[in-house]
């Protein structure tokens, strides 16, 4: 698609929206995409986005909604202390979701979106001591920048937030929650979603390779490093007017399969 077409699509998707409204639309879109690509876990797991502005608020889905039911206008606004600022559906927020996401948003101001999943492949890899293995081109996007956090039970203990933040570190955008699942973070919703989509495929392939029982073809460490840097470069050159080209492609998909996210 041409850059002019991309511009027209952005204009049509975000007609006269404020920055806060645009974040709402993107966050609702991420929920629908996770549902579409079968990465949801009933009403559990969660995606959050920082509310633009001076307040330490973030948005999250109403507790009890399936991801495909989430609408931009119905997202819950909550602060870092757990106070509900706005709850259009009067459904509250997932307590474990608050623990995890308030920790990230409170400590990492570079993170505008945090996305957490429990998928079969993701939970399987999170249960392995090896973590993500450098088995193929896809996995080399995660050759560096992946943190791990030890499992402490369902995330209801607010004291866990300090340990989680320490484990994530100041820069990494991918987190393996041991024996639990996966989390990705981004400077915008599109980055967090794209990282998770790619990470999920990596986990699926890894489990398939290991299940095959066949010898693994190794990749030279220098090639691993080169490929990781190439992924970073492609991410930089794929920006179009403040949006990643891949995120725009996902939004075009939603226009066909689940357009209610914008409501």
UniProtKB/TrEMBL annotation:
<dbReference type="InterPro" id="IPR001303">
    <property type="entry name" value="Aldolase_II/adducin_N"/>
</dbReference>
<dbReference type="InterPro" id="IPR051017">
    <property type="entry name" value="Aldolase-II_Adducin_sf"/>
</dbReference>
<dbReference type="GO" id="GO:0005996">
    <property type="term" value="P:monosaccharide metabolic process"/>
</dbReference>
<comment type="similarity">
    <text>Belongs to the aldolase class II family.</text>
</comment>
<dbReference type="GO" id="GO:0051015">
    <property type="term" value="F:actin filament binding"/>
</dbReference>
<feature type="domain" description="Class II aldolase/adducin N-terminal">
    <location>
        <begin position="25"/>
        <end position="207"/>
    </location>
</feature>
<protein>
    <submittedName>
        <fullName>Ribulose-5-phosphate 4-epimerase/Fuculose-1-phosphate aldolase</fullName>
    </submittedName>
</protein>
<dbReference type="GO" id="GO:0005856">
    <property type="term" value="C:cytoskeleton"/>
</dbReference>
<dbReference type="Pfam" id="PF00596">
    <property type="entry name" value="Aldolase_II"/>
</dbReference>
<dbReference type="InterPro" id="IPR036409">
    <property type="entry name" value="Aldolase_II/adducin_N_sf"/>
</dbReference>
């Amino acid at each position: 698609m041409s850059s002019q077409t991309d511009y027209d699509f952005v204009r049509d998707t975000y007609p006269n929206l404020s920055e806060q409204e645009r974040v709402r639309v993107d966050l609702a879109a991420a929920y629908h995409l996770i549902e579409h690509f079968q990465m949801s876990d009933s009403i559990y797991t969660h995606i959050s986005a920082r509310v633009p502005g001076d307040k330490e608020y973030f948005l999250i889905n109403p507790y009890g909604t399936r991801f495909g039911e989430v609408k931009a206008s119905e997202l819950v606004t909550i602060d870092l202390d757990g106070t509900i600022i706005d709850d259009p559906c009067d459904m509250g927020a997932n307590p474990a979701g608050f623990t995890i996401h308030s920790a990230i948003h409170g400590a990492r101001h570079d993170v505008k979106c945090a996305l957490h999943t429990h998928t079969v492949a993701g939970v399987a890899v999170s249960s392995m001591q090896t973590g993500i293995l450098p088995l193929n081109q896809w996995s080399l996007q995660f050759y560096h920048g992946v943190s791990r956090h030890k499992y402490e039970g369902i995330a209801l203990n607010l004291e866990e937030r300090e340990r989680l933040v320490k484990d994530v570190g100041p820069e990494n955008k991918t987190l393996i929650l041991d024996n639990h699942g996966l989390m990705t973070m981004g400077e915008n919703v599109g980055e967090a979603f794209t990282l998770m989509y790619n990470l999920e495929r990596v986990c699926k392939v890894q489990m398939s390779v290991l299940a095959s029982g066949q010898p693994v073809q190794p990749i030279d460490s220098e090639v691993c490093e080169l490929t990781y840097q190439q992924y970073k470069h492609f991410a930089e050159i794929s920006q179009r007017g403040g949006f990643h080209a891949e995120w725009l492609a996902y939004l075009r998909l939603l226009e066909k399969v689940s357009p209610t996210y914008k409501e």
